[in-house]
Design a protein that fits this description.
The protein has one domain: Metal-dependent hydrolases (TIM Barrel, Alpha-Beta Barrel). By secondary structure, the protein is of the alpha/beta class. Helix 3 links the parallel strand 4 and strand 5. It is globular and about 55 Å long. The strands form two sheets. An eight-stranded parallel beta sheet has the order 1-4-5-6-7-8-9-10. Strands 2-3 form a two-stranded antiparallel sheet. Helix 7 packs across helix 8.
Length: 338
């Protein structure tokens, strides 16, 4: 059943003619999607998201209707269902508790064959220093699928933050990062060198991706990518280029087009960014990601994964390299089990 609040976006997406599914048997791990109910949320960015309700049923329907072979997914931190009571630093554990229940429902077969939320990353304030350890332990106790955190980091990488960050290494947890400002990446590279035992996962190609950017802006992004790619303990999520950033919208956003874009057109627009990132990191350190339902404002789940398959073919990736980018890297980095 479609929630009334989701109807405008669903109606826009329904205007596309579904494409034939490329390589339908190729196993895919979607390493970055959200789950939420924003109907009572106030303030940005929540009020601007067009998909107001995205829970187990909604993502399962997107997967089923896509025709792609999505075998597992990873839940990405998004301030969903935090606790409203108890110590402030522990409230984010409510997100892991909620997602674990979705994972348990998924394993019942209720939502199909895909293992939803086979990995989870949530939030913890690493500025607490070593006092963040009980928070991380609470996340791990809430779900055996908990794999790490996504949170901000200070520009000075001060001792207090580093003490908290070192707790990730102690517990074999990863650190996801996203900022629309790619100029944060050189500081992130410094962090990667300071603590090489933590795997860092850069989200969404490292920053805002504007297909209309001039050559100078593109060169600056490439320099940032080169800097972070030089750190062997960093991997890249190759996706998220289909998202709105604040008031800025890409030219293929629902507010900019009468009907959704197709995979060949989307590949043509974004290929320079995707192929450069893949070349800088290598396929064994890259993973395609949906970033749904954020990117759903621009493209359907079927068309998005067709786009990634077009990019892989246009880049000349071998079968083993495609396996890395569509499933292998995500399984290894997030320690996913069949």
């Amino acid at each position: 059943m479609t929630h009334t609040e989701n109807a405008p976006l669903e109606s826009w997406l329904a205007q596309e003619t579904p494409e034939p599914v490329l390589e339908p048997a190729l196993p895919i791990v979607d390493p970055h999607h959200h789950l939420w109910d924003l109907r009572k949320m106030t303030g940005e960015p929540f009020t601007s998201f067009q998909q107001k309700v995205y829970l187990g049923e909604e993502i399962s329907n997107d997967i089923a209707m896509s025709g792609h072979n999505i075998v597992q997914t990873v839940f990405a931190q998004c301030n969903a269902f935090y606790r409203t009571d108890g110590p402030e630093e522990l409230r984010a554990v409510g997100e892991t508790e909620f997602v674990h229940e979705i994972a348990a429902l998924s394993r019942s077969g209720l939502y199909g064959n895909t293992q939803l939320c086979a990995g989870i990353f949530s939030a913890a304030d690493l500025r607490l220093g070593d006092k963040v350890e009980p928070v991380l332990q609470a996340h791990m106790a809430a779900s055996q699928y908990f794999r790490g955190v996504r949170t901000a980091f200070p520009r000075d990488l001060n001792d207090e933050f580093m003490a908290g960050y070192n707790m990730l290494a102690k517990h074999n947890l990863s650190f996801d990062h996203y900022s629309p400002d790619h100029q944060r990446l050189p500081v992130l590279a410094k962090l990667a060198r300071m603590q090489p035992d933590v795997t860092i996962i850069v989200n969404h190609l490292g920053g805002k991706i504007d297909p209309g950017a001039n050559n100078d802006a593109f060169d600056q992004w490439r320099q940032s990518i080169d800097t972070i790619a030089a750190c062997s303990n960093v991997v890249l999520k190759v996706g998220g280029a289909q998202q709105r950033v604040g008031p800025w919208e890409p030219p293929f956003h629902a507010n900019q087009r009468n009907n959704p874009i197709g995979s060949e057109a989307l590949c043509a627009l974004l290929y320079p960014w995707y192929t450069y990132a893949i070349g800088a990191f290598g396929p064994d350190r890259c993973m395609f990601e949906s970033n749904f339902p954020v990117d759903k404002e621009c493209v359907s789940y079927r068309t998005l994964w067709n786009t990634f398959k077009c990019i892989a073919d246009k880049s000349g990736l071998s079968d083993s390299e495609k396996e890395d980018m569509f499933s292998g890297t995500a399984k290894r980095v997030y320690r996913l089990h069949d």
